[in-house]
Every structure is written in C-alpha cells, then in structure tokens.
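Appendix C: a fully annotated inverse folding record. The material below is reproduced so that readers can follow the format used throughout the book. The structure is listed first as tokens, followed by the designed sequence.
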C-alpha cells in the first residue's frame, strides 16, 4: 500500500478520472464549458451519462478537509494503515484507465475552475495559502495524480479516522482505494455513486450512525 500524501477536497467533493479518457469523452460530447460542474449542472444528462459510461466518478458532500490518500494495487493481502480505524467500506466500484496510464483525484473546485488543466492531462496541483492567525504558508493539494497501468479495475473505497485524534480536525481522516485488475468488471457506478444511498463523508457518516443508535 502506498501513501500518496494529502488531498484537499475543495468544493465539498472529489472525483476519480482517467484524464485522457475523460478528455476524449468531453470532446466526443462537444463539451465547450470552461467550468465543468457548472456545465454539468446545465446539462444533467451529460453528468449522468459520464457516470454511467465510466468516464467520471464523483464522491460528493464531503467535508473540506485534507485527507491522506492510500492506494493499493493488486495486492493479495491488504492491511489498512496503522493508526487509523475503519469507518466505512464500499466495494466494487469500476474504473477504466486509458493509454496515458495515469488517474487523477480531482477536487470539485479543481474541476470547476481548472478544467483546462485536466484537458492538458495535468493531474497534480499544489496551492500555497496563508493559514492561521499568523498567516503562515501551508500547502494544499486540490489534485493528485497516480500512475496506474492501462486496463479495467474494480476498487473498494474505505473511509478512515485516526485512532488518536490530532488537534486539527481536518487532519484526522483518510481514504483508502484498493484497486484490483479485472477486465470483466461490471460498471455499477451509477448506483454506487448515489450519495442518497451511500454516505461518503467520514465525519458525517459517523454522525449519522450515532443518530441512528440514539433512536434504537
């Protein structure tokens, strides 16, 4: 398992895309919008078809935190990172990777305001922003790229919380993506990416569980 560092879920969401396949899809659909989410909002049929066709996989209504991202690829035995507790696990998402052999974890703000970067296969972005009362400079990463060989994958998404909490809440959570090569994988992303039935926000998921337990 590899720790690829922190990812900033700016815009309350993230998406996983194979950048070259997604760019080809936008060209095929003659998408000329410069702001992807705004364009999708005006063309909901394109948004829905992009998920159904496996070209865009969003996870949304996620707290704007800095999540550590862990990735496992075709490991026979996967052990979760030490120092974290599993909060939830959703299995068997679908992902196709194109000739570029690279995927991008893109925040919603990155897709909205930097779509041209995606179209140029730019998968990594670092912003340095003054933070805190003293205005010290801190790095945030609204896009993270990862090399993944061309092919069809299924993957599990695991939400984690630190066992021993840090004082800064936004540093207490992580996601694990467990990829497995499977050329026969079925695409059920449209059902699985529905945030009405699947809760992808880690602290929100815990709060929802606590509320249910209170009424038992």
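Designed amino acids, in order:
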């Amino acid at each position: 398992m590899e720790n690829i560092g922190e990812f900033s879920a700016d815009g309350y969401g993230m998406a996983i895309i194979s950048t070259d396949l997604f760019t080809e899809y936008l060209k095929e659909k003659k998408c000329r919008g410069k702001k992807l989410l705004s364009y999708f909002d005006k063309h909901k049929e394109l948004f829905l078809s992009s998920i159904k066709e496996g070209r865009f996989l969003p996870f949304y209504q996620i707290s704007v935190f800095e999540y550590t991202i862990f990735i496992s690829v075709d490991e026979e035995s996967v052990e979760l990172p030490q120092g974290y507790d599993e909060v939830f696990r959703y299995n068997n998402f679908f992902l196709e990777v194109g000739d570029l052999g690279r995927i991008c974890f893109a925040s919603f703000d990155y897709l909205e305001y930097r779509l041209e970067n995606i179209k140029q296969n730019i998968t990594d972005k670092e912003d340095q922003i003054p933070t805190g009362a003293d205005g010290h400079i801190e790095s945030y990463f609204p896009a993270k790229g990862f090399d993944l060989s061309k092919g069809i994958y299924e993957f599990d998404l695991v939400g984690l919380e630190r066992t021993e909490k840090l004082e800064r809440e936004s540093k207490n959570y992580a996601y694990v993506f467990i990829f497995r090569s499977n050329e026969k994988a079925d695409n059920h992303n449209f059902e699985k990416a529905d945030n009405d039935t699947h809760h992808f926000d880690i602290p929100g998921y815990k709060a929802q569980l606590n509320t249910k337990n209170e009424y038992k």
